[in-house]
Amino acid sequence: MAFSRAYIARNSLLKYSSLSTSISLLSFSSIIPTITATRSLTLSASISPQQSNTSTHHSSSFPLQTIKPTWKPMCLYYTQGKCTLMDDPSHIDKFNHSCSVPLEEDIAKSEKLRPQDIDFLLVLDLEGKVEILEFPVMIIDAKTLQAVDFFHRFVRPSNMSEERIEEYIEGKYGKLGVSRVWHDTAMPFREVIQEFEAWITGRQLWEKELGGPLSRAAFVTCGNWDIKTKIPQQCQVCSMKIPPYFFEWINLKDIYLNFYNRRATGMRTMLYELKIPLLGSHHLGIDDTKNIARVVQRMLADGAVMSITAKRKLDSPESVDFLFKNRIRYSSFAQF
Hints:
By secondary structure, the protein is an alpha/beta fold. The protein has nine helices and eight strands. It has an eight-stranded mixed beta sheet with strand order 4-3-2-1-5-6-7-8. α6 (about 225-235) links the parallel β5 and β6.
């Protein structure tokens, strides 16, 4: 029965995902012409002059190729289903419109892959210290190692004045050049959660009527902070209960520590030690999520097994049991 549910979930997810066509693990590209521009710290957002009412993204297919792709910034209107310039060649040429997770080497043929108890890994990397500002999730198929879909929303603070929001966003995203797209697209956290729940339900990764954890899937975060600390804080601000699918997760730092027998303080350390170049803008959530996903793919290819590292107590959600004896520990002042 477990196998049957996993098979149905995988096929259902690929059915609903617009990324259901083959995705190269050597490299990813959309069906648009190859871009010759080299990597630069340009804007990571579309400059779309208007918005669409569409709430979901429309991804292109990703044909297999063996040419290493060049990096270009992501259209952040597109990631939220609001890009209106898909027919503009100059816009398409400038911005990436794909769920690409480029790797430096082909890991699809790895002979070290091990069976996983979890079918889908939902890589999550929240942004925002005072309140959540960005909620990006990327799904990795633990069997094929492919990135099969993504969810991305900017989040509008619920407990701040407009003046404070302006200061907060400019300080966070102004230096990345994406403050405009944030203001154009951000929505309240409660609405983001509603859309996210519809998204995971449509992919048969969660059943709202039953509640409980994800089905044959688990969140992966680079540290405990995102789900252990920030999600409860934001729920409290919004007078919400912690959604039940946030009651367990995988801390990639603990998996990394136990698998490679060395401590990684964060995503950049993992990328450096695994010789995976950082792509995009650090602390832009969607880019960090992609980079963490690349670490996950490499670890799976190296033979790591992804298993739950932390669980909330059902009768006391603010309390968390850490399941690994050998785990990353932080001082009381550490945030991540």
